[in-house]
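Quick entry, no commentary yet.
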Amino acid sequence: MKKLIIWLADNKNTPKILIIIISFSILIRIGSAILLGNQISDLPGVSDQISYHNLGIRIANGYGFTFDRPWWPATPAGEPTAHWSYFYSIFVAAIYWVFGPQPLMVRLIQVLIVGFLHPVLVYQIGKHAFSEKIGLLAAAISSLYIYFIYYSATLMTEPF
């Protein structure tokens, strides 16, 4: 990540304002991750994070893609399920395997990725579809949009 930031900063084609937007995007999302903390709660609009947290723990502990008790929509305890994203569950499990079941670590790693990628991708789309100014404006808006900030720190697939 450090090399990528240095490359962006040294690249003559990267506007300095984009570096500021990306930095702000990452910092505000880190704040959101810290605010949500190391607990998994059934907050408005993000109840799926309970499932991804439980799947991450089960996969990291070697139980496979299963739940320890009957789970929505009709998954018996200990039976494999196909109702939840495999890639994201494995992402959570990998972090839990390294750091233990620490949702804050998932949140922090996720906000670093998303806080960087959202404004960069939105900037590129806006720049190529319209103009560099539109790309920068779109990147700034995406870095400030409250739902992107909120969801980027939840244990859900929506940020990606």
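second:
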Amino acid sequence: MPNNLTATSDGFGYMGLGLVGALLKVDLFLATVVNGPSNPIVISDLSGLNNTADIAIKDDLLFTSLFNSDQIAVLDTDNDQVDPFPYVFPFPAGIRADNPNSQLFDGVQSLAIRPGVSGVDFTGADIYFITGISEQLGSVDSTLQTQ
């Protein structure tokens, strides 16, 4: 069950692969599948549920929500590398951001990226999310991993 298709400026489209932490990729110019269900881009362990519910793209970075683990993962769309430097691990979000050992989760769902340049156009959070279970608005400052 794929989710919404999100396009890059260079003509590729990404979408979540149902209930697991993986993405599908298509070439929108050539109308071909680059990474399909048999060879997805793996974001998290495929043996468990971790729905990639939403995708937001800024420049060459793709941010995807990991619903069941309350995280936001990063992918470099130039080479499809997961957790590219300096983003060496997913951002915690939702309940597990405050308590990583919690048996509960909020279900990070919808994502939005603040336009502009951090430190120039704004300070603070640049990624906003809505949780699917508690229906709360949250935010992450992605520059904290890059300083």
